[in-house]
């Protein structure tokens, strides 16, 4: 009985191996370009220390707010795939990315009490990613795959206010931050050396350091001077990404 139980497994391994070696049309080395649309949501974790507390705020104040934005990306990519056995296919891929600007938003709790005079921004600039792409050959010309990756991206954020009595007027920061990537996609051969790839990704980035600094200001009709010390914004960014890629196989290893 056990012999019959294992027969389907051995049959699958044997037939998939024959199918792959005779019919796999995906060459090992490839390069390509990709365009992406990013739907992003992020948390703004705000903390400030008031050396001279005013009103209802105590010495320390914190708040969390949520924002959304959409950006576009352009990528140059390259990779090397291999077919270890049967229908199984895998690739190592790297890419360089450039992004459109993010949007401005009202911070969760601005330096000054009048929030309509203050504005913050958070944007991705450019970066790089590396990933493992395990997949399975659905047909000789169709490859379904997943993505497990790691990235390193440059972010820019700023805080600006035009209130006359608040100094300084602007803070900015440009940190490099790591990210984690999960994705699924389909790669369809169109011509011998050209394929079209459609992919969905989820990109998770935590603890992006925002602008930090101290601001002096006069809050109202009184003579009090308000000092916001160790102002800190930290962002948690979550992106849902749709990518369309054109892949070229130069056949240099054939």
From TrEMBL:
It comes from the Bacteria. Residues 19-217 form the Outer membrane protein beta-barrel domain. Residues 1-20 form the signal peptide. Coiled coil: none annotated. Keywords: Signal. Pfam families: OMP_b-brl. This is Outer membrane protein beta-barrel domain-containing protein. It comes from Legionella norrlandica. The lineage of its organism: Bacteria, Pseudomonadati, Pseudomonadota, Gammaproteobacteria, Legionellales.
